[in-house]
Amino acid sequence: MFEFEIQSKELQASDVPPAVLSSFTCEEPFERSILAWGEHCIECAIPQCYKTCDLYEARSDLKCRRFIDGIVKIRMPASYQGYITRITFKTWGELWSFGNARVYSRAGAVEAVYRFFARVAKLFPSVLGLGYWNVPRLFSSFCKGVVDAMRALPIGREAEYFLIQIYNEESRVVTYSLKITNEPEGGKIPFMKLFEIDPGYHEVLVHVSEISERVDLKSRFSIYLVPNIEDGPVTAYFSLVHFVRYARGRQHPCSAKNVKCVVWDLDDVLWEGILAESDISSLKLRDGMRDILRTLDERGVLQSIASKNHPDLAMEALRHLGIDHYFLYPQIHWHPKSRSLKTLQEQLGLGMEAFALLDDSPFERAEVKQNCPGALTIDAVNCQNLLAYPCFGGSRDEDSRQRRYYYQVEAKRKEELESKFKDEYSTFLRGSKITLTLSHPDSENADRIHDLIQRTNQMNFSPNRYSREEVARIIKNPDLEKWVLSAADRFGDYGIIGFSVIDKKAAHITDLLFSCRVQMKRIEHAFLSHVLDKYRKAGAKHFKVTFYETKRNSHNAKVFDDLGFERVAAGDGVDSFQFLFDRGIPREDIVSVLER
Known about the structure:
Layout: E1 10-11, H1 18-23, E2 30-32, E3 38-41, H2 49-52, E4 67-75, E5 83-89, E6 93-98, E7 102-103, H3 107-122, H4 124-127, H5 135-150, E8 157-158, E9 161-168, E10 174-182, E11 191-197, E12 200-207, H6 208-212, E13 221-227, E14 234-246, H7 253-256, E15 261-264, E16 271-272, E17 284-285, H8 289-298, E18 302-307, H9 311-321, E19 331-332, H10 337-348, E20 355-359, H11 362-371, E21 376-379, H12 398-401, H13 403-421, H14 425-432, E22 434-439, H15 446-455, H16 468-476, E23 480-489, E24 492-503, E25 508-514, H17 523-537, E26 542-548, H18 558-563, E27 566-571, E28 574-580, E29 591-595
Parallel strand pairs: 1-4, 15-18, 15-20, 18-19, 20-21, 22-29, 25-26
Antiparallel strand pairs: 2-14, 3-6, 4-5, 5-14, 6-13, 7-8, 9-12, 9-14, 10-11, 10-13, 16-17, 22-23, 23-24, 24-25, 26-28, 27-28
């Protein structure tokens, strides 16, 4: 709810630039909070300031007018609320509301009722002229009180994010401050966030967990949004400025996806300013960016670059800032950024849904969104919130901390293969001295096993996504043979790269998966040959594998043909393969297998 009833203008959609209207469209359904936004002053000291402040301008209720024309309502049926607002902030002007972090499925209906009574209340100043205690002011105060009271009621659900939908009409970047604080503050440090809003449309999305670290959202709190200006009024358009929770089954990408690689733009995103217009020695990382890069790296989230820049100059700048080592296969050229993501997809062996592009250009985000379906695109204004978003949670185990290292070693392998061996791939593999080590799972590597099961798609022979509790039960089951697979070669260590579960009595692999880091290295061939030899010596007559085919893993079924398995059953994407021990077991002598 915006304060429309206090001497504010109304406009039609035809009075607003088309670029503004096309930005505020209703696409993603969600539940939202009910807030009562009004104009306020950051230096408010009523009632003394009404007499002493040179900026005082009386509204119809004698309070101070800090927005030119008030909160201007613009009818727009295609938007979330059926309208958007235009606010022109004067010096010291701020948008304020009591807080309520609970969200409601019927918030739209409440808004409709409010708008009806707001139209009625707006008639009273001109009809009756009740002065200071006029009907619009009483109605506005009543709405604020309702919002404050609803905060404590056990209705609705807890929010996930605080969302600001804003269109910056200025031709310059405007920095906004978001402040959320308990009332009274009582010496507590409030939640504060700065956002640099470029010209055009942006969505600022702050995870509630980040706010609740500073603010008790169950006690009374207030929300303030203010532009940091010194040189005249600033105009912006708003749609939603609310706590939100995305609808069940259609969560916001930042809560639903599991991002494996963050792809950064450079200018005005990773660092402040434009490289082509700056001296490298004067470049400065954005506030907090070094910690964000380090933390994502520790969580095992890979990182790369997609920037339209001079490649040598950009790499020199990254080295100057001491962050070049974080980025795998940086894509720095003048081609479309969708090409950059597709190149990274090929180099890293990840699905497109594993990527997230951080970019400040709506054009670049739209180009990637259209040409790279599945990739997440995020407005760079949200860069500083990344660590709070669930999709960037990564993993906390030691193997994840080494993920970048594993990919960097793999890059060295590729470089030597391309430079020395060309098409002699088998010769190269033998010269790499690959060793596969099989060990039994325990409490120390259980988290890594769980992480592999949740993340692996391309080389996963089974659809099972076991929980940590289920992994623990599998480890303890004496009827199952469990193997944790690790690999290394002369270039470096891969770490834990696979997991297998075998029903010992049936001689049947029920689960088998490998990290995509070892794809095309014949490791799956070496493992299956080793297991076949082991069960043949134990007296088994045959050995079975169940393979669940998907679009992502279908090419991995070739291993069964290579080793001489027979397909004994097929249907609905599930294939059963059997190896009879009346034949020899193929051996390639490419990968050495050690069993601990």
